[in-house]
TrEMBL record:
An MF annotation (GO) of this entry: 3-oxoacyl-[acyl-carrier-protein] synthase activity
EC number(s) recorded for this UniProt protein: 2.3.1.41
Domain of life: Eukaryota
Cellular component GO terms, alphabetical: chloroplast stroma; mitochondrion
Name recorded for this polypeptide: beta-ketoacyl-[acyl-carrier-protein] synthase I
InterPro entries named among the record's database cross-references: Beta-ketoacyl_synthase (IPR000794), Ketoacyl_synth_AS (IPR018201), Ketoacyl_synth_N (IPR014030), PKS_Beta-ketoAc_synthase_dom (IPR020841), Thiolase-like (IPR016039)
Amino acid sequence: MEAAVKKKPPTKERRVVVTGMGVTTPIGHDPHEFYENLLQGVSGISEIEAFDCSQYPTRIAGEIKSFSTDGWIVPKLSKRMDKFMLYMLTAGKKALSDGGITEDMMNELDKRRCGVLIGSAMGGMKVFHDAIEALRISYRKMNPFCVPFATTNMGSAMLAMDLGWMGPNYSISTACATSNFCILNAANQIIRGEAILMLCGGSDAAIIPIGLGGFVGCRALSQRNTDPARASRPWDSVMSCKSFALVPLLSDEAIALQNFNPIFLLVVHACVEYLVKIASYFYLNPGQNRDGFVMGEGAGVLLLEELEHALQNQ
C-alpha cells in the first residue's frame, strides 16, 4: 500500500508594499527631485571630471558631480569605503527616512526580521584599483579593507551592521538586471514570512579609468562627446508597440496606505510582470546611427514592507 502523500498546510498570502524610496543620482538625491527632473527631460550625462580622460574616445558619463555623506555615514567609514558603498548606504538610509521609520520605531522593530538585499554589478572597483596601484610600491601601502570592500555584497553587509538588522542579508549581481533581481527576491523574503522589512535595490560606481577603458575596449560606449544629452544610442531604432493597456489595480488596503505617508505603492510581482510585458511589446530595428551606451553611477533603494506591518505603523 502506497504511503499517503502529505500535503503542506496552506500558508497565508503575504502582500508586499513599497513604503519608502532613496536615490543617489546625477539628476537628484531625493525621489521627488529625481522624478521631476525625469519628467522635465533633464539629462545627467556630462563630461567626466573625476579623472583625466582626454586620451579616451569616450569622455562623457552619468557622473554624480556633488555628493555628501554628512549626516548619513560616519566620517571614518566615508574615507575608507568605495563610492558604490557610500551611494548605497546613503540611499538606503534615505529610503528609511522616506518611509517614516523613525529612531523610536527602529528600536521597536524585530531586527531579526529586517533585512538588506542591495546588489551591485561591478562592486568596489575603485578600492581594488587603488590597492593594485599601492601594491606597485609595497603591500604595506594597501588599504587593509581593499578585498572585503571590493566584494559586491559588502554594501548590504555594512548597511545591515550599521542599522543592527539581523534578517536576510546578501546581494545579487546580474549585470544590468541586478536591481530587478534584488527587488524580486527581497519581496519573496517577505512573502515567505522570513522578513517584515527589506531594503533592496542596487548601486554602482565604475566611472574610473579601468571601468571606462574596459567598456571602450569592447566598443560599447557612445563617442558623441559634443552632444552628451543625446549620446546614449545603444540602438538607433524605430520603436513600435502593439496596442495594449496595463491598468494597475489598487486594493482598498493599498489606497488606505496613502493616508499616512507620501507612499509609493507597488505590488512587486505585478511590477516585474509589467516590465516583462512592456519588453515583449517593443521591437527594435537596428539602423545606421547606433553609437553605444553611456556609463552612469548612483544608487536606488526601495523599502519593502509586509502590508499588515505597514498599516500598523501608520
